[in-house]
Amino acid sequence: MAAPVVAERTEAGVARGDASAPASRVMHGRATPYLFLLPYLAIFTVFGLLPVALGVWISLHQWDFQLPNTPFVGVDNYKELFSSDSLVFSDWWQSIRATAIFTVASVPLLVVLPLGIALMLHRRFPGRTFFRAVFFAPYVLGVAVIGLLWRFLLDANLGFVNFVLGAVGLPQHTAWVTSTPWAWVSLVGVTVWWTSGFNAVIYLAGLQDIPAELYEAATMDGATAWDKFRHVTLPGLRPVLLFVITTTILASANMFGQSYLITQGAPGTETRTVVAYIVALGIGQNDAGRAAAMSITLTIMLIIVSLANFRLFRYRED
Question: Model's pTM, two decimal places?
Answer without folding.
Answer: 0.85
